[in-house]
Amino acid sequence: MSDILTSPRAARFGQSRGFQVVSVGSAVPPRIVTNADLAHLGCDPEWIRTRSGITERRHADPGTATSDLAVAAAEAALADRPELRERIDLLVLGTFTPDTCIPSTACLVQDRLDITAPAMDVTAACAGFAYALVTASQFLAAGSSNLALVIGADTNSRVVNPQDLKTWPLFGDGAGAVLLERVDPTPDAPGLLAWSLGADGRGGDLLVCPMSGSRQPVTAAGVAAGDQFMKMDGRAVFKWAIRLAEENIRSVVERSGLSLDDIDLFVLHQANLRIIDGIRDALGLPEDRFLVNLDRYGNTSSGSIPLAVDEAWRSGRIGSGNTVVICGFGGGLAWGSGVWKL
After folding, report:
1. Is 59 a catalytic residue?
2. Is the pLDDT confidence value at 120 over 90?
3. Where residue 35 sits, what CATH number does that domain have?
4. Domain of 188?
5. CA-CA distance, 4 to 35, in Å (whole number)?
6. Is there a domain that residue 2 lies in?
7. Dihedral in degrees, nearest 10, Cα atoms 122, 242, 260, 270
8. Out of 107, 156, 299, 327, which one is annotated catalytic?
9. Set 59, 209, 269, 272: catalytic member
């Protein structure tokens, strides 16, 4: 862990101008699980709130999968612009809780949306939406896509152990979607004025689902041991996230040619209020510059940033022409940031 903090691996930076947001949408399961609802498991409701800032989260009902939330978020975006459905020529889905290993969840979403675009999953845990957005932006900037649908969605309640009282209260289920249309890539065009992606596999064991792939196939003994569930070293991730995000945000804003004061809103991964406050304090910025909705949704992993963007967009807090900073960070370790002119 000390190496990750003292000698972090370098991120890659880039720019992807030439696309604008034309619609947004989000979806969460209807079932609300409050802190009080978790008391029977031995969780102290007030401890959850003071340690994380979370008071409730959404959990999917049995039979609901990540694709269901992704489709609902996409349909919410398309409800405002139904004429765009047949023009979608790219679908990128960020998730680490796919319906199945094969086929990709993006293919299932493509079918249910009745579109014919190429579709792919991007797996970067809580940085999944940032990775998906940058991936789609490359197609748009190159002229290989004219209308991309980018989704972040996760059903964390399927991969977190209800008996893990330090982890179970932190996570919820949710999805968000954005429709991005290509525009001429002029010097003042909207898009990602600067982006940054990075990874550090030295911290891979800090957030891991051991029995979820080819390394440790499913066995009865593994299930009995709970190896199908996420294991997280919360203290180590906390320290890493604050330092990493603060440095990465400063770097990506500088590369965009803007200053922190030029940013209309900061939309960070909604992991924990103490992490967001730590990043905000390190940047020296006031609370009103940041969107926070984790008190109602918990950590929705890949869904957290687009869910927050949708909320800010629909409330009028941001709109076309505004500039936001997004920053996602989590398992991998992986992170992604962007200065995004909407």
Report:
1. no
2. yes
3. 3.40.47.10
4. 9-342
5. 33
6. no
7. 50
8. 299
9. 269
Q: Is 269 a catalytic residue?
A: yes
Note the pLDDT tens digit of each residue in 185-208: 898 999 999 999 999 999 999 989
The pLDDT tens digits for 208-248 are 988 788 888 889 998 888 888 888 888 888 889 999 999 99
Specify whether 299 is catalytic.
yes
> Catalytic residue among 126, 156, 272, 327, which?
126
Residue 1 domain-assigned? no
What is the C-alpha to C-alpha distance for residues 257 and 265, in angstroms, rounded to an integer? 17
Please give the structure tokens belonging to residue 20: 């604008």
Residue indicated by tokens 């000698």: 7
- What is the rounded CA–CA span in Å between residue 276 and residue 281? 9
Task: Give the distance from CA 247 to its chain's centroid.
Answer: 19
Sign of CA dihedral 98, 104, 108, 109: positive
φ/ψ bin of 253: left (φ > 0), alpha (ψ from -120 to 50), beta (otherwise): alpha
The answer to whether residue 4 sits within a structural domain is no
Report the domain count for the chain: 1
Question: Is residue 269, in this structure, part of any structural domain at all?
Answer: yes
Say if residue 321's pLDDT is above 80. Answer: yes
118: tokens are: 């190429």
Tokens linked to 126: 């809580």
Tokens describing residue 214: 């080819």
With 70 as the cut, is the pLDDT of residue 72 above it? yes
300 — pLDDT class (breaks 50, 70, 90): very high
